[in-house]
Amino acid sequence: MAMSQVSSLEPPASKYDRLLARAKKVPPAATLVVYPCDESSLRGAIEPADEGIIVPTLVGPATRITAVAHEQHLDIDRFGIVDVSHGEAAAARAVQMVHEGKGELLMKGSLHTDELMRAVTSSSTGLRTARRISHVFVVDVPSHPEALFITDAAINILPDLDVKRDIIQNAIDLFSLVGLGTPRVAILSAVETITTKIPSTIEAAALCKMAERGQITGGLLDGPLAFDNAIDAAAAKIKGIKSHVAGRAQILVVPNLEAGNMLAKNLIFLAKADSDGIVLGARVPIILTSRADSIRSRMASCAAAVLYADARRRAVAVPAV
User: What pLDDT shows up at residue 13?
Assistant: First the structure.
C-alpha cells in the first residue's frame, strides 16, 4: 500500500492532541501537586512530567505518598516532596509556595476540591485577584469540529451579572492565551429571544452590551442563544439568526452552575466527549483532576494550563514601552 494511502486512513489529530503538541513547545511549568495520595493523582503528575510539560513538586505527607508510589510501581524519585501532614495543611502550604514564587500552577491531588479552594480563596493568605474565580470545562466532542469551552459549571452556583462578566473574561483569556485566537462567545439561555419571563435572556443581552462598551474584551459575544442555535449553523439559519457567533460558538456561557454541570456531563457521558477543567481568576491557574478523568483529559488540563501560564510569563517578561 502506498504511503499516501496509509496516511489517509489514519485518524486526524484530536483537538487535545493539537493542544498537547503546542504545550510541548513551551518551557515546562513548575507545578505544585497538592496532596497526591492515591494512584490517580500521582499518575496525573507523572504523565505530563513524562511529556516534558510540567515539573511537579508533590506537597503532602511524604511517607504516604512514597508508600502509594511503591505499591503502584510509580517512579517519583525525580520529584521533590514537601512533607505536610494532611490535605488542608498541604493546600495552605502550596498556596504559600505560590506566594514565594515556587510554583506557576496548582494541581489538585486526592483532597476534596473544597479543601483546596478554601486555601486559594482565603481573604488573608489566598490567591485572590481583582477577578472573580471561575471554572472552565474544555470539552472535546468527537462529532464536533472544535473544542467547546463551557463556563461556569463548577465554582459559581448562581452568578449575577457582575460575576458573569468575570466568568466570560476568564474564559476569553484562556481561549486566547492557549493560542486559539479570538473566540466566539454564546451566552446561553432556553430561547434566543429576550423575555422578562426568563431572566437569563435579559442578562445575556446586557452582557453583549457590556462587550460593546469595552467592559468585556477579546471576544465576539452574542446572546441570548439556545444551545442548538449556538453550536449548529443549520439550527441558527432556521431561526433566522444572523451573527458571527450563532451556529459557530466556541465558548458557551451557561446561566448557572446546574445548567453548566448538566450540559458538560451530558456531552461527556452521551456524546463520549473528553473533558478537562481549569480554574482561573486566581494568581495561578488551578488544574482540577478527578479519578474518573481519562489520561487524555488529565493531559489536556495540564497542556491548557501550561500554555496559559507561559503566555502570562512572556507578557510579564516584555518591558513596557
Answer: 54
